[in-house]
Amino acid sequence: MTSVATAISLISRAEAEASSEARALGGAGASTCGADLAKGPWEFDAAEALRGLPAYGPGASVADAAPRSTPRQGQLPQEYREASEDELRARITAAKEALGERVVVLGHFYQRDEVVEHADFVGDSFQLANAALTRPDAEAIVFCGVHFMAETADILSRQDQAVILPNLAAGCSMADMADIDSVEQAWAQLEAVLGTEPDADGRVPVIPVTYMNSSAALKGFCGEHGGIVCTSSNAATVLEWAFERAQRVLFFPDQHLGRNTAKAMGVPLQQMPMWSPRKPLGGNDAATLLESRVILWHGFCSVHKRFTVAQIEQARAEYPGVRVIVHPECPMEVVDAADEYGSTDYIRKAIAGATEPTVFAIGTEVNLVNRLAAEYPQHTVFCLDPVICPCSTMYRIHPGYLAWVLEGLVEGEVRNRIEVPADVAATARVALERMLAARP
Ligand code: SF4
Asked: Is residue 378 in some structural domain?
């Protein structure tokens, strides 16, 4: 139902139908956010090779450009690019059968259906990393998600297990907005302004907190500097943990998760300055930083940034009584206007737990929303954004790449292994363990 091709056919149908009917079909409203959605992702691998610069391809609603350090995939062999959907399905199924318990395939909630159908586990990034731990006999963990997720799985899995990302170009534009060099520079400037000595209560001037959606290097930075990792489910608990130990927090890379969480905890907006990595002191003066409680990195998710208050008003006009739930990566005004906000897990549970037929307008990635709509036909579930705009980086994982890595394993070849250097993994694990130990 939610393959890009299917989504596009839904759009054509929707053009001839009333918008409310189209929404009931699963968010297929007026258009897609890019004609490129009809292309195979390998066309971007080829374009990148020609231009020498990686980019994230279709669905990049703010023209995301990947940094030069982003791994490049290289061209997928022709037989996989030209195979039909049915042929790829058969080849993936056969390879998985041949590999048996030797492989576990993980599918992120935002992944397209043609990939998710082959997943042994479906979930968010941290659920999937933990799910992989339940399969200690698997020699290979194929992570159908994005780069930072595969890194986390590698950090948490056994050393002899190979974590594989089917398309190396599946990065995350938000994670790439905070790189280790910029964060280290920011840290040095903050130490110069704030000092390093604890106050009378033993709280250090600042603690780094990174969202799970960040590189292993940043998780390692947090491990090394007394900091911690958070997810969209536990961000408030993690901030409480940090405030017990520090006067303020440097939160990266997602400004919206940081702001929405801290605001709900009562931190005034004027004590949450933004840190713009290219400006001295992040674009702030020293007094503002000294007064701050949460310093927000200038990062965002280009998928969740698309949601607006106008979309919520439109949904309420069309469906009086609609339950509007958005993800905390959405801008603050959208979260404020919604009825509820929460992680993908929260959204799933809210829909699953509704005992009466309910209309849900959801502000998160369209593949997940459409899957929930299909899973809970007793409810009307649609994406707040009428424009189909899947996560452009998840889009880079196509069944062709999945077939290619699985058949490689059958032949004894590990393709696209993601390996976090041992020193980085060690400190990143410290920050992850602090998160696991943090209790509300
Ligand atoms: S939805 Fe946003 S945060 Fe999640 S992987 Fe895609 S770009 Fe990154």
From this structure: yes
Q: Is the CB of 367 under 6 A from ligand 1?
A: no
Task: Specify whether the CB–CB gap between 206 and 194 falls below 8 A.
Answer: yes
CB of 344 within 6 A of ligand 1: the answer is no
Is 146 a pocket residue for ligand 1 (Cβ < 6 Å)?
A: yes
| pLDDT tens, position by position, 275-331 | 999 899 999 999 999 999 999 999 999 889 999 999 999 999 999 999 999 999 999
Q: Do residues 92 and 15 share a domain? A: no
110 lines ligand 1 (CB under 6 A): yes
Query: How high is the pLDDT of residue 32?
Result: 72
pLDDT greater than 60 at residue 57: no
| Percent share of the chain, pLDDT over 90 | 73
Residue 439: the pLDDT is: 75
Region 67-94: mean pLDDT is 91
User: And the tokens for 54?
Assistant: 């990686």
**Domain assignment present for 281:** yes
Residue whose Cα lies nearest atom 5 of ligand 1: it is 172
- Spatial strand order in the sheet of 103-108: 121-123, 103-108, 140-144, 162-164
What is the torsion angle, in degrees rounded to the nearest 10, for the CA atoms of residue 292, residue 338, residue 382 and residue 42?
Answer: -10
C-alpha 94 to ligand 1 mean position (Å): 31
**164 contacts 431 by C-beta, under 8 angstroms:** no
Smallest Cα–Cα separation from 367: which of 118, 114, 70, 174? 114
| Reported pTM | 0.89
212 and 292 in one domain?
yes
In a domain, 62, yes or no: no
Compute, in angstroms, the gap from residue 393 CA to the centroid of ligand 1.
7
Q: Can you read off the two tokens belonging to residue 28?
A: 């297929």
Domain coverage including residue 184: 176-299
User: Do 291 and 399 have their domain in common?
Assistant: no
Whether residue 75 is contained in a domain is answered as: no
Question: Hunting for tokens 């994230």 — which residue is that?
Answer: 56
Residue of minimum CA distance from atom 3 in ligand 1: 301
Atom of ligand 1 nearest to the CA of 304: 2
Pair (275, 320) in one structural domain? no
Domain count, the chain: 3
The answer on pLDDT for 12 being more than 70 is: no
16 Cα: distance to centroid of ligand 1 (angstroms): 31
